[in-house]
Predict the structure.
Amino acid sequence: MDLTLQPVRVRTGSEDEQGLLVFADGALAAVLVCLSDSYGDEAGSWFLEAGFGALASHQPAAFADLDAAQTWIAHRLAAEPTPRPP
């Protein structure tokens, strides 16, 4: 699986605007947001703002770094059942 990250500004209603679109094999899979200084010890961590498909209903704790976020996303997507052809 090929994960691609694209920087994006996200309007979250707070100071957290630095975001990344996460594409898995070319399809949008998630939106990550970097937590601002207002989060104290978690500042600089990454949060799953939105997930799609296998990531839609999961809200893990903030990820310490992008590597941790990508690893979690890849594991979740790898566990997703393969859709059957119509």
Summary: The beta strands are 3-9, 18-24, 27-34, 46-51.
